[in-house]
Model the fold of this input.
Amino acid sequence: TNSFSEQTLWMLAVRDQRDRAAFGLLFDHFAPRLKGVICRSGISQGQAEDIVQDVMLTVWRKAHLFDPQRAQVSSWIYQIARNRQIDVIRKERRPVPEELKQPEEVQEDAAQIVALEQETSRLREALKRLKPAQREMVEKAYLGELSHSDIRAETGLPLGTIKSRIRLGLERLRHELKGTETS
Amino acid sequence: MSSITHHIPDELLIAYASGSLEQAFSLVLAAHISMCDECRARLGAHEAVGGAMLENACGTEAGMAVSADLKARLLDALDDPVEPAPPAYHRSGVFPGPVMEALGGLPPKWKPLGMGVRQSILSHGKGGSVRLLYIPSGQAVPDHGHNGLELTLVLQGAFHDETGRFGVGDVEIAGSDLEHTPVAEEGAACICLAATDAALRFRSFIPRLLQPVFRI
Ligand SMILES: [Zn+2]
Ligand SMILES: [Zn+2]
Done:
C-alpha cells in the first residue's frame, strides 16, 4: 500500500492540528505496549503507569519535533520512554545529541515517509521470525537488560536499508536547512 | 564532517539507545552523533528496532492493560502549565551541544597536568569519568593501559597512536588490551573528550603517584 500507517496519521494530526481525538487513539495503541515493556524492568505497575503518563505527555508537548522522514512514531516514543526511565530509575538525565533544527516550512516527502514505514514493517516481521532464544537476546539488548560488553551486534535484522532511509531523511533536512539559512 | 573515519560500534549504539550505557560514555556518544550523520542514522536504525519491539509487544504477555482512569487523567493534564524546558545547548566553538551542556554553558576550567597537557573534568562518579583533554601539538600523553573501556573523541586537531590516526570527529575505542601513547599532531593543539569507566594504568612511576590527585 502507498499510504501512511494509522499511527503516523494520528501523530501528524496531533503535531499539526493538536487533535485530541487522534491523541486518544495514540494513547489506546501505545499505553498498554509501553506499560508491558516498562514492567519488564521490574518496576511496579503503579510506577510504570506514571512513566506511561509522562511519556505520553511528552509526546503531546514535543509533537513539533516529530519528523516522520527520520523516525517512525514507535521509535520516537521508544526514545522518549527510555529517557524517562533513566530519569526515574537512575535519577540521571541521559546526554542527548544536539537536536537538528527543523526549518519553519518543510515540504515533507510522502514517498520517503512511506518507504521508511515499509522498511520498518519488514523489520517487525524479521523480529517475529527470529528464533525464540535469539529474539530474547535482541529484546534484552534493546530494553537495557544487557551491559554493552554483553551485547553482540549481529542480530540478523535488516538494519542497513532502514539506516539508508533515515540517512536520506537527514540529508533532506540538512538541505532544507541550507535553503532557509540563505533565503 | 565527512572526513570522520572512526565511528561508534553497534554494541555501544544499542547500549546507548536502550539506556544501559554508563553516563560518561553516553556523553561521548551524544557528542559524536552531534557531529556525525552516519552514526545519527545508525542510531535511528537501532531506535527503529526498539520501536518495532514496542509495536510487537501486544498480543504477547508483554502488552498490559492500563488502569481505567489513566487516559482521562492524561487528557485532563494536556492543558496543565508546562514547566519551562531546560535550556537547549548548542555548539560553541569546538564543543558540540552535549559538551556545552556538561560544561553548564561556560568555557572549560583547565588544570595543568604537566608538559603543557591540561584537563577539565566534566564528571567523575560511579558512572565513570569524563574529561576534556588539551594536548599541545607534538606532545605525547604518557604511555598508559586501561583497566576498562576508554572512549576518546577528537574535537580539535588530531592525534595518532599505535592503532592509527584520529582527526576531528573520530572516536578511539580502547579496551583493557590496549597500551598506547597518543601523540598530538603538529598544527592546532589537540582537544579531546575522553571517558573511562575505570582508572587508567600509567607505566611510568610519577604519573601513578599523581593518579589520585588528578583522578585519571
Ligand atoms: Zn560516526
Ligand atoms: Zn588511553
